[in-house]
């Protein structure tokens, strides 16, 4: 029995994307920095607005989280003091010491996994290519945190 090779059509995606720019924009990796696409003022505005929104949201969520954690500890202390709950402080201390030892053990190697290192390298390359956008984001973030 002979095998027919005509049963399957193969599509060469490299040739396909050359003729279709929308396809290249969606599926091809970014060819460069945003400096190639936008002027300096646009980059600063985009970075500043996204940074301000992020900083503002970060501030609000941070306050809410701090209030929730602080209020939770406050309620636990009241419940412990009035006798509703009993905290085994020796067990808490033992677990905290165990966690400290594990943190010391993991941080003594001071080596990043290859996956984390590759992600960090990609972020650094992005930041270097988009300095103006990143600067605008950082400034906007600080303004958002302050407002």
Automatic annotation (TrEMBL):
Q: How does it sit in the membrane?
A: Multi-pass membrane protein
This protein's source sits in the domain of life called Eukaryota
Instruction: Using the UniProt record, give the first listed, main subcellular location.
Output: mitochondrion
What subcellular compartments does it reside in?
Mitochondrion outer membrane; Nucleus
Q: Which GO terms describe its biological process?
A: autophagy of mitochondrion
List the GO terms this entry assigns under cellular component, sorted alphabetically: mitochondrial outer membrane; nucleus
**Keywords attached to this entry:** Membrane, Mitochondrion, Mitochondrion outer membrane, Nucleus, Phosphoprotein, Transcription, Transcription regulation, Transmembrane, Transmembrane helix
Membership in a protein family: Belongs to the FUN14 family.
Q: What does this protein do?
A: Binds directly and specifically 1,2-Diacyl-sn-glycero-3-phospho-(1'-myo-inositol-3',4',5'-bisphosphate) (PIP3) leading to the recruitment of PIP3 to mitochondria and may play a role in the regulation of the platelet activation via AKT/GSK3B/cGMP signaling pathways. May act as transcription factor that regulates SREBP1 (isoform SREBP-1C) expression in order to modulate triglyceride (TG) homeostasis in hepatocytes.
Spell out the protein name for this chain.
Answer: FUN14 domain-containing protein 2
Q: Which organism is it from?
A: Psophia crepitans
């Amino acid at each position: 029995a002979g095998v027919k090779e005509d049963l399957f059509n193969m599509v060469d995606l490299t040739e396909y994307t050359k003729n279709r720019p929308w396809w290249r924009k969606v599926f091809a990796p970014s060819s460069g920095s945003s400096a190639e696409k936008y002027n300096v003022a646009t980059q600063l505005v985009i970075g500043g607005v996204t940074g301000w929104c992020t900083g503002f949201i970060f501030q609000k969520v941070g306050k809410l989280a701090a209030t929730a954690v602080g209020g939770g500890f406050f309620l636990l202390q009241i419940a412990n003091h009035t006798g509703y709950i009993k905290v085994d402080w020796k067990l808490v201390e033992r677990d905290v010491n165990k966690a400290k030892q594990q943190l010391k053990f993991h941080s003594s190697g001071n080596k990043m996994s290859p996956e984390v290192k590759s992600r960090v390298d990609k972020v650094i390359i992005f930041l270097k290519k988009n300095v103006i956008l990143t600067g605008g984001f950082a400034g906007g973030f600080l303004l958002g945190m302050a407002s």
